[in-house]
């Protein structure tokens, strides 16, 4: 499960939960969170690595990006979840 705050300017927090997997790895799972533009191009990698089980938070700083619609894609334990972000300046 992931959630962020919309609309935002110039940054937003993205909160997410890392649960256990079938391949338990000592209380950790691999997590990747990427931000994509409206055309699907990657603009930022926010998380890429092993994370402890539980709730976490990361910050997306978009001060150098133009206003518009972006998406953040969360991948963990075979689950892919994508949510929309609206950057207003």
Structure report:
The chain has strands spanning 2-4, 11-18, 28-37, 42-52, 54-61, 68-76, 79-87. It has a four-stranded antiparallel sheet with strand order 4-3-6-7, with no helix packed on it. Strands 1-2-5 form a three-stranded antiparallel sheet, with no helix packed on it. The chain contains no helices and seven strands. The termini are far apart. It has a single domain (2-87), classed as Sandwich (Immunoglobulin-like). The protein has 89 residues and is mostly beta strands. Helices cover 0% and strands 65% of the residues. It is elongated.
C-alpha Rg, in Å? 13 Å
* Portion in beta strands: over 45%
Question: What share of residues is helical?
Answer: under 10%
Number of strands: 7
The CATH superfamily bears the name Macroglobulin (MG2) domain
User: How do the helices and strands follow one another from N- to C-terminus?
Assistant: EEEEEEE
**Count the helices. How many?**
0
Spans of 5+ residues with little confidence (pLDDT < 50)? Answer: none
Write out the strand line-up for the largest beta sheet, numbering strands in chain order: 4-3-6-7
Q: Please give the domain count.
A: 1
